[in-house]
Design a protein that fits this description.
The structure is a single chain. α1 packs antiparallel against α5 and α4 runs antiparallel to α7. By secondary structure, the chain is mostly helical. It is built from 16 helices and no strands. The protein has a single domain, classed as Up-down Bundle (Growth Hormone, Chain: A), CATH 1.20.1250.20.
């Protein structure tokens, strides 16, 4: 039940922004008088506060036990998430979205770090895969529920955050009151921790920058290039999450079977996926979505596994907050970097330009993996 409790928190973390994305069009209609940028911040603002809270997590966990942090984070999650149902002022709504980001910043390092705390290295690949699978499933369920609820009324979409009550009850019942403790003196500095774990942290940043080219461009570009309906495009995007979910379930087997090659799987799969997207035919787009889903399903648990083995029982305070910050920083900066580069390199009239920038970022990712491969070795299989 401890394992199930930790994994239940993984279901919630992806919902910070993604859950509301399908309802954003309806929300925009309600806040028609507000600037477009403020409406877009409803989705992106939580990521900024997740980053800030994740960086502060080691200091928090040195003073507060894991169970208390989890309960506090989940209470804030449910209160801030569903609180948006009751408000009609966009500034109040944005304030609650910022608090939601703080909540996820408290929950996310625990959802992976506690797996490293309670379980030995030989079990962590399987558990990190399950954690990633739960994260993907949470995205699928929350996206579908929020989209359905938004058809009733714009604010009903925020009721999806009531799902946090399940994890809260499980934490209250089964999560041990673990003192994570203070960092070792030589690991207390952010700079020293970055120096020690930079292969996984930089890898997560690049992984998320590359992956988020897909959700920010796929629907728009595919509707221009093909005759696929909006419903079909949505099904393809949900199917990608399901693909990543399946990969997470078998990730432990993949790590045992392809230990030496696994580090190259995510960048190579992304590279093939975006190359197929750039061709622009219906069949290449559909096949490309399969490769991108596989890449995302492999990449996140792989980096978490490598980092947790290197960090040991201190992973929850030493490295997982850094990975959480890198994950959401990658999501946050991806459109800010990719869109200007795409326009500058390929002009404003090439719909596949973001995918071509993605191919270039995949090359950078491959180079980063190769250059740091001696940091990313695993202990012998048992």
């Amino acid at each position: 039940m401890v394992t199930a409790t930790i994994l239940s928190m993984s279901l919630l973390t992806v919902m910070a922004g993604a859950a509301i994305a399908p309802a954003l069009g309806i929300i925009r209609e309600h806040f028609a008088a507000a600037p477009e940028m403020l409406v877009q911040l409803i989705v992106s603002l939580p990521a900024l506060f997740i980053i800030i809270t994740s960086l502060l997590f080691p200091a928090i966990s040195g003073r507060v036990r894991a169970r208390t942090i989890a309960i506090t984070g989940l209470l804030l999650y449910v209160a801030a998430g569903t609180g948006c149902f009751f408000v009609h002022d966009i500034w109040t709504l944005l304030t609650l979205r910022a608090i939601l980001g703080i909540a996820v910043g408290l929950i996310m390092p625990l959802s992976t770090g506690l797996l490293a705390y309670y379980f030995p290295p030989e079990e962590q690949a399987k558990l990190m895969g399950l954690s990633a699978a739960m994260n993907q499933m949470g995205g699928v369920v929350a996206t579908l529920l929020a989209g359905l609820l938004a058809t009733v009324r714009w604010n009903y979409a925020f009721l999806v955050y009531l799902l946090g009550l399940t994890a809260l009850l499980m934490v209250l019942a089964w999560l041990p009151d673990t003192p994570l403790g203070r960092q070792k003196r030589n690991d207390s500095s952010l700079l020293k921790r970055l120096r020690r774990f930079h292969p996984s942290v930089v890898g997560m940043l690049l992984l998320m920058m590359i992956f988020f080219i897909f959700p920010t461009n796929f629907a728009i570009v595919t509707s221009q290039q093909t005759a696929l309906s909006a419903e079909s495009i949505t099904l393809v995007m949900v199917g990608l999450d399901l693909m990543a979910f399946i990969v997470g379930l078998v990730f432990g087997w993949l790590m045992r079977s392809f230990r030496r090659a696994m580090k190259y799987f995510a960048p190579m799969l992304f590279l093939v996926g975006y190359a197929l997207f750039a061709v622009g035919l219906t069949w290449t787009i559909l096949l490309g979505a399969v490769f991108v889903g596989l890449a995302n399903g492999v990449g996140v648990p792989y980096l978490n596994t490598i980092a947790s083995i290197k960090g040991g029982r201190e992973s929850a305070t030493a490295v997982m907050p850094l990975l959480s910050a890198a994950l959401y920083l990658g999501q946050f900066v991806s459109p800010l970097v990719v869109s200007p580069l795409a326009t500058a390199c390929f002009g404003p009239d090439d719909p596949t330009a973001p995918y071509k920038i993605g191919i270039g970022l995949c090359a950078v990712f491959l180079l980063q993996v190769w250059a740091t491969r001696h940091f990313q070795s695993l202990p012998p299989a048992r």
